[in-house]
Amino acid sequence: MAQVPLHGSLIVSDWHRCKDSKEYFCKILHKKRRKNFGLLESPVMPPQAAVDTVHYKIFITGKSGVGKTALAARLAGLNIPNIHHETTGIETTVAYWPVKLRESGRVLFFRLQLWDCGENALRRFDHLLPSCKEQVDAVLFLFSFTDRTSFDDLSNQITKWSGPSVSRVVKLVVGTKFDLFMHCDVAERDVRDFQATWNLPVLRTGGEVSDGLGDVAPLLNCLAENLWHQDCVTASQRFQEETVTVL
């Protein structure tokens, strides 16, 4: 994987708060709540404000109970289940997120197809993990701040995603249930040490979902920025390879 870009170096990270973003974000909202997009649905812009859409496949992984399904629902603006049920197979959820590139001012819709698969199902059925890995663009490694074992298991999870075949896959770590500080089993010092060792961004999520966009904007913007950065690096490498071939 390419070096992690500096936060806000490629996209306008607080654009959802800017006045010129309203005509784009209103396309993913309905009555001030996020729209639920099906697999074949997408935001519709007027012809004079047509926006390109970039498509990405995101795999969410982590121990059972850390909140994989809840995170997918949160990012897509869906209702978060109150009771935990082990995901019995693969579930996919679609989230759209408009982004403004910092250098060019170009606006893009990021279509994020979130793949979630239960830990027990992955162990029982050998074909599920290859399906999740196929043409994947990013993987989110989840741990719960209330479950120390899920944090200790991160190194094992990340090691499974090493090697040339997944070298271009964006990797981010997300700590869930950050709001339950009274039951926290993972100290901030441990998180800092982990970041220094693995050089991976660690994001935090938790608490009630608001009607606005602020609770998901940091994570979606970080994911979008890393995906776009990886695309730029890949395009540059291919151009150099083609140039060398021509010469």
Automatic annotation (TrEMBL):
Keywords noted in UniProt: Cell projection, Cilium, Cilium biogenesis/degradation, Cytoplasm, Cytoskeleton, Exocytosis, GTP-binding, Nucleotide-binding, Protein transport, Transport
Gene: cplane2
Molecular function terms from GO: GTP binding; GTPase activity
Classification via Gene3D superfamilies: P-loop containing nucleotide triphosphate hydrolases
The organism of origin for this protein: Parambassis ranga
Transmembrane segments: none
Highest taxon in the source lineage: Eukaryota
Family: Belongs to the small GTPase superfamily. Rab family.
One Pfam family in the UniProt entry: Ras
Location(s) in or outside the cell: Cytoplasm, Cytoskeleton, Cilium basal body
Name this polypeptide is given: Ciliogenesis and planar polarity effector 2
The keyword Transport appears for this protein: yes
Gene Ontology biological process: cell projection organization; exocytosis; protein transport
